[in-house]
Amino acid sequence: MLLTDKTAIIYGAGGSIGGAVARAFAAEGARLHLVGRTRETLEAVAADLEDAEVAVVDALDEQAVEEHLARVGDVDVSFNLVTRGDVQGAPLTEMPVDDFLRPVTDGLRANFLTARAAGRRMAERGSGVILTLNSGSAHGSPMMGGTGPADAAIDTLVRNLAIELGPRGVRAVGMWAAGVPETFTVEKLSAVNPAIDAAAVQGIVEGLAQMRMTRRNPTLAEVAATAVFLASDHAAGLTGTFVNVTGGMVAR
């Protein structure tokens, strides 16, 4: 198994992608720490797993992140999947400044705090992997508010972490995964774009598939399998980059 004897922390483990990654990591032998703000969703994921600890931690809270890592001890993989509060569907000229900035400030803060806490400990041991995920929208994402700037900031953070931590044996890698249909519900999408209804969701799914080189949408299982690979020693030559799991929606 690819992750045998590795300890992994998944921030945002109660979400759709977080749960899929947790199950994939567990199947490959990882010891899991499932972290998020809602105990019920975390425990629902943990119920299917044999070796998983649950902790309610706000990834925006510096002290809480540090105290949790101190309790965990050695960590081999830190994966940040925390939601950022993106608001989409309105032109930038009509968007409130707080809605625009929230994904930038929250996304960058959460990724920085979790990566810094893990990176310090990994560097002392001389090994480890810091992972994150965004939509790959840094090079242009009209009608998506602060999503593009947030992705750009996190892309840059990952590359700089890789440069600084690489000589100490730590890799920093990201994934681009735009629009995984299994994560879509009217409730979730309407929180980002209030104009969404069931018909709109179906239209989005069909439209996304046509925007991809593969003409099909990626699955949760495919995204999770890519995360397993990146966390494993098989990806030892990969750092300072993002792996494109968008089916070619992002052509770079």
Quick tags:
15% strand; Rossmann fold; 2 domains; alpha/beta; 7 strands; 8 helices; 252 residues; seven-stranded parallel beta sheet; single chain; globular
Provide an overview of this structure:
The chain has about 250 residues and is of the alpha/beta class. It folds into two domains: about 5-180 and about 220-245, 3-Layer(aba) Sandwich (Rossmann fold); about 180-215, no CATH class. The protein has eight helices and seven strands. Strands 3-2-1-4-5-6-7 form a seven-stranded parallel β-sheet, sandwiched between helices. Strand 2 (about 30-35), helix 2 (about 40-45) and strand 3 form a beta-alpha-beta unit. The longest helix is centred in the middle third of the chain and has 29 residues, at about 95-125. It is globular, with a radius of gyration of 17 Å.
Count of separate DSSP helical elements: 8
Count of spatially separate domains: 2
What is the ordering of alpha helices and beta strands?
EHEHEHEHEHEHHHE
Q: Which strand order spans the largest sheet, edge to edge or round the barrel?
A: 3-2-1-4-5-6-7
- CATH fold node name of the largest domain: Rossmann fold
Structural class: alpha/beta
Broad shape: globular
The CATH homologous superfamily of the largest domain is termed: NAD(P)-binding Rossmann-like Domain
Largest sheet: 7 strands, parallel
Strand element count: 7
Mean pLDDT across the residues is 93
Q: Any low-confidence stretches, pLDDT <50, length ≥5?
A: none
What is the rounded Rg? 17 Å
How far is the first residue's CA from the last residue's CA?
A: 31 Å
